[in-house]
Design goal:
- By secondary structure, this protein is α+β, with helices and mostly antiparallel strands.
- Helix content is 37%, strand content 23%.
- It has eleven helices and 18 strands.
- The chain has a six-stranded mixed β-sheet with strand order 1-2-6-3-7-16, with helices on both faces. Strands 4-5-18-17 form a four-stranded antiparallel β-sheet, covered by helices on one side.
- Strand 1 and strand 2 form a beta hairpin.
- The N and C termini lie close together (8 Å).
- The N terminus is likely disordered.
Length: 407
Amino acid sequence: MTSLLAAEPQQQGELSRLMAACADQVCDWLAGQQQAMIDCLQALVDTDSNSYDRDGVNAAGALIQSWLEADGIECVWHANETYGDALEARIGGGQQAPVLLMGHRDTVFPKGTVEQRPFTREGMKAFGPGVADMKSGLVLNCFVLRALHQLQQQGKMAMLPFPVVALFTGDEEIGSPEGRHTIRRVVEGARAVFNAEPGRISGNVVSARKGGASFEIQVQGKAAHSGVNHADGASAIGALAHIITALHGLTDYEAGVTTNVGLICGGMSSNTVAASATAKLDLRFVTLEQRDQAFARIEAIVAAEHVPGTCASLILKSEFSPFEARMSEQLLALYKQQAAIVGFAVDGEFTGGCSDAGFTSSMGVPTLCGTGPVGAKMHTDAEFCLLDTFVPRAQAVARSVLMLAAD
């Protein structure tokens, strides 16, 4: 990472010492915020916010807005047509590129889940819909922003030559169909991104992720009575079976590329040659080059006539770019240094799951993911967050942001 400041070595050393002192002050403030963090987490978890529940996702955003504006932090909304709007909060100034704290407010759990299964605790382990993925990370980002704002109010933030922006989107769990556009606008040219998806149960952050795409395959055939005039029909299901076999043949575990048709439907009855069939395909890949190769092969498979008289079409439903390890190397090194000062050891970890970190890293912005509190069993009723990781993880992010000024 290049320095934001054209400072002489002596000046740079003084700046480093000042930022380290500011980081100590921030950490001292955060050390006393654990219960406040837990209280905010409970309120946020107890707000239903399924990706398709626009009102619920926006209610979660309004809750975050109320916490930040109570501290005098400026918030603005980026409107979306279908899904939850994106909330942006900003502190600091200067003309340099900003540092981004990022996270999504939507969850996979349907509206009404909170009534059946609200926030609960067993000691320092918290449960509830979205408690780890990623409402705890949203709370962490709020408190990091609030901690840095404390320095700004004290006149210390004048030494930080870039704004710090927190972006809270509302549709990541369904591929960020609208949120991706806001992310790209806000993140364009940024210095660094910390995406507060849950820390891994190993204690690590996420330094690389697969990219992924979701497709719908629609096959058209010709109906016929399967006993009276079978030969007059053209089975869409038969064609789809050939397509699925070919698509699954693209899986290459060694390269990290996988294909999976996880949902199929079609036909009208067992004694009717199927006139139509559909399937849902999931593709995962490690690099953009693999993505382009896989897309071309999938398109060719679907375009081929596998059963005479049938035709198929391919519709891209959603896509995440891969988060390649090279885009996290320097930021991970900085985070590890600051975590060690706070008092915990951490490393980077690869995961096959996708996130919005793929968008930011593919734009050439240094990115680190999984910077939220540690959690596990995401997307299940057993999902949990380790509450005692709240403070140290927030401290590590805050210190990393500040030390970027002295890089």
